[in-house]
Amino acid sequence: MTVSAARDAEPGGLAGHLDGFVRAVRDAGIPVGISQAVDAAEILTVVDLLDREQLRHGLAAVLLQRAAQRPTYDVLFDLWWPLSDRPRPGGEDGPEGEAEGDPGDPTLDVPGDDGADLAVLMREKLLQLLLDGDPEALRRFAREAVELLGRGQPSPSGQSFFSYRVLRALSPDTLVAQLLAGLLAEGDRGGLAEQVARQTIRERLTALRAAIESEVRRRTAAEKGRDKVAKNAVRPLADQVDFLRAQAADLAELRRAVAPLARRLAVRLSARRRLGREGRLDFRKTVRASLGTGGVPVVTHHRPRKVHKPELVVLCDVSGSVAGFSHFTLMLTQALREHFTGVRAFAFVDTTDEVTRFFRPGADVADAVSRIGREADVVGFDGHSDYGTAFEVFADRYASAVGPKTSLLVLGDGRTNYRQPGLPVLADLVRRSRSAHWLNPEPQRLWGSGDSAANRYGEVIDMVECRNAAQLADFVTTL
Which intervals carry biased composition (Acidic residues) (predicted)? Predict the structure, then answer.
């Protein structure tokens, strides 16, 4: 679809096309307000609509607030403003509305005779393009490779093009040795030059894979519709990834997201504490001061109130089923240490041990969580969660940890493996504390199902659903 075609195909023309894109960005979890949508429409009047990258960066400048949102945005942009949106140099659209490259564009001409194996010829061309490092030529090659090598039998979902077929045929990872030979001069092996060359190769191979996946999404969107593809192609933002379903790549992104999250929450807590220093209205001082303004209380006076920093006790299930959730909650707890007079952390599986010693200032939380599994006394019987026994051990060994100034935070899914839940002990801990909350990483609809005692625990303690970093941020602002 060209830009001019968008004006005719979408309700409202180009404005309707932009509105659909903005809605998709918002549906992906990126907050976009009305003013930002208006600014995006203004961008269309000041950028060159035929310069796709200029349009990409212009819309990103007004629609995004954080760098972490950029990968999601780029996937949606490629769906709504694909490479085929470019008109041909002659001003006419190619077959089926797709843009074609320049006449004689080397990326569109596969060398060799007609009888040669297509994949071999494409690999030869790919090797040259990776050596040249032209990103635009690489993107055009990716489009051609998907057309020639990516088509397969339609899947049950209706998809006809697959990136794995292209990557299997081209096997770009097997070209590394040839690329190194082409990028390095004699005598540069083993030094800094080789490290730079390897990094360059990794970046170009990553760009190739991204271009192939983008082209497959574009063709799938043409078959099934952009909206349907967008729901499956867009990964959740880091703060929306479920702790219990996070994969290795998600965990690394979540670690990067928790640190700035802690800083933002720290600022909010400090501001709230400063605003809370004024107590009840001092009526006598206010009336006395109003005599100077004709009886109008222009300035109000309040009695001072001593604002104390509460103590925080964290009681955390570190069994395998909730290990990821425990990791990020303890990371945030450590970052908020300065806002509490004392922070004590306790971990349990089927018995309880204090693990505060692993979270000294400056300690790496990932290493601390790993040490808990190796060194802490959290398994006393069979290594399966036993909340009742864990609560009893905590109340017996660390009874003084919870008092009138203590905020108690319990972390876990509440799945007891059909053992005694220890409700009376937990109720006594809640009664003795200043405030008590339980963060549960499972969806609320699953509470009480199977061996979950979350509903019963919710009768004696404030049970809060906390499946991702966004919900964790919402909760901590209430502490």
Answer: 93-103
